[in-house]
Each structure stands twice: as C-alpha cells, then as structure tokens.
C-alpha cells in the first residue's frame, strides 16, 4: 500500500470534504443539488468584468513565457498604488509577490516561516485553509475565539491569553469568511497593539475588502502601525469574480527591517515555483484601476445586497435559527438550536439535509468552530433560489430531530 505523507495528518479542508463528495455522487446520479457551499461567484452569474476578459485575450500572446518570480512590474505597481490608497505606507514593488491565488501565498507564507511546533493564532471560526497551511508546514494552529455576542469580533483577551514563547503571528480575516463581519478600526488597533507588545507578525487576509454593505468602511490593518511586520493578502477571485484565473498577491509592509531572512525565504519559495499564471497577471492592473463594478452589486438595489437581505430575513424567521447580519463578503454563519433539533454532530446534520432536501451547506466544525451549533451559508444564488432553498430548510427543520 502506498501511504500518504504523515504531514497530511490533521490537515482538513471540509468545504470540499466528504459531504461535498457525496453531493457530487448525487449529481452523477442525476439529482439537482442547490449549492450554498462554495464562494465561487462566476457559476452563479456573477461574471468577471468584460474589460478584464478583454485585456486577458489581448495579452495572451505576450503571456507565453515565465514572468519574474514575484510577478509582472505593472501588476505589482498597481497593487502598490492600491495599498497606498488604503494608507499603507512604505510599500515598494519588491514587497509584493503575485501568486496563483491567495491560497498559494498563504501556504508559502507558512512554509517559509514555521519550524516544527511554532504557533500561529488563527480565528475560530476561520477560513480553514489557514489552519490547514499551518499544520502542513509543521506548525501548531492555536485558535482564538471570535465572539458572536459582539458581532463576531475577536475576543482580544482570549487572543492574548493564548500567546506563548512559540507564537509567531496572528491571522486576521477581514472581511471575515465565514461570519461576514468587518472589523472597525478600534478593534484592529487593539490587535495591532497586541502584536506590537509580543513582537508578532500580522497576516491580514483582506480578499473581500471591496464587498461591503450598509456603507461599512474597510481598514487595512497594515495602515495602523510601522512597528509590526504585516503580510496583507488579496486578489481577483472575489472582488472581481475571477476565481478561476487564480490571481492573488501578498504585500509585505511595516517592520520589514526585522524580517530579512523570512523575506528571503518567501522569495526563495516564489522562485521555486518559477512564477504565477502569466495571463492573469496581465489583467491585475486593469482590474484595480478605474470603475469598480463590485460597488454596484453591494448597493441597496444591487444583486449581492438583495441576496444578503433575503437570505438573512428568511433564515432568521426559522424558529431555532439566529444569525449576526453580515457586513461584508457573501457568507453567513447562523446558529442553530442544537437542543431543539437534537444535533450532536453537525456533519451528520448537513448530510441529512443534503440527502433529504438536495441542498449543500458546510458544517461549522469545518471552520474550526468547536461546537456543533453553526453552519455556513453562501448567498451567491439568486433571490428566487435563496427563497426556495430557505423555505426547504424551514420545512426540513419542522420535523427534524437529529439522527
Ligand atoms: N482567503 C479567504 C478568506 C477566502 O475565503 C478564500 C477563498 O474562498 C481565499 C483566501 C482563497 O482565495 P484564492 O482564490 O485567491 O486562492
């Protein structure tokens, strides 16, 4: 028997885990599954802006060769300007690495940093790739709680209490996946102070920074101090609905002077994978400049905003379900009354729902949430589909009594 590497022990990514596979099997049998499980905008009719597609086609002939390992100058310059517009100081072209999506850069950031047993503070709930990347890199993910009673903001006491001599950094996901919360500047400021006190790196995942509702402002954490090393992540997958193009970037800023060796490590990993997908690098400049079509989608009459409102209203009208209204991204993380429905295992609940109603959600434990009392909804389907799906969920819960 050929065994997989033990490095994969305890590495999980439930968003595409066993229940997802079960849904695929049902699809192969001819069933239609309503998918509220993956944050992939294009299949739901959220097209990549035309100018991006056009630019990629125009540049395809120029994109045949490898680029600089860190990425095309024009793409990095556009990212640099974007960071300057968010008040992040002292970002140079060389502080930016373009990757095959943020996913690749998250893993590279952990692999370049961690020795066995080094700890990284990660939110609970989290986007699970962070936890998986720390584990795969030999590190120990340590989860700090986010508090549902306080709009899912991080519990700062819990965060600070969990710092040890092995802690290397703090991950912030803002706007958050799976809760949809957006952190105000005073919350970010306090996290930055913790990082300053304990000399920790801040990894700020800001991939949803343009998907904001109700006039909510987004603050880039890296703008808040010169005394902390920041790695800030974003890309084309969500703000520009171009997840398949695999284009993302990481920006290194702040106290770079203390991180020469780490930055060399990151550059070495970037070189080893030669470069990221060249055609998509060519469109980064076009994407970041000028008219931003995402802004229309989040206006009161915009499609994303209407879907958020319908999904939230429908969900919270179901007896036994409560939810913090999201301010950003396209996810909700509702709470379900586990006593009322006798839910002991959230994976079983999601599986029962899939089999009974042909609807696919992801269980809260898939986001490193320790209790079986949450699940994640992706509200990318149309208002009509969301209405129909939430009605089915309500009907299912009328009689559901665990299993
Ligand atoms: N970070 C967060 C918080 C995400 O939700 C996702 C994708 O869902 C990613 C990173 C990965 O994005 P990419 O498509 O750039 O790899």
From TrEMBL:
It comes from the Bacteria. GO terms for molecular function: L-alanine:2-oxoglutarate aminotransferase activity; pyridoxal phosphate binding. This is alanine transaminase. Its EC number is 2.6.1.2. Gene3D superfamilies: Aspartate Aminotransferase, domain 1 (3.90.1150.10), Type I PLP-dependent aspartate aminotransferase-like (Major domain) (3.40.640.10). CDD domains: AAT_like. Pfam families: Aminotran_1_2 (PF00155). Belongs to the class-I pyridoxal-phosphate-dependent aminotransferase family. InterPro entries: Ala_Aminotransferase, Aminotransferase_I/II_large, PyrdxlP-dep_Trfase, PyrdxlP-dep_Trfase_major, PyrdxlP-dep_Trfase_small. Keywords: Aminotransferase, Pyridoxal phosphate, Transferase. Residues 32-392 form the Aminotransferase class I/classII large domain. Its cofactor is pyridoxal 5'-phosphate. It is an enzyme of class 2 (transferase).
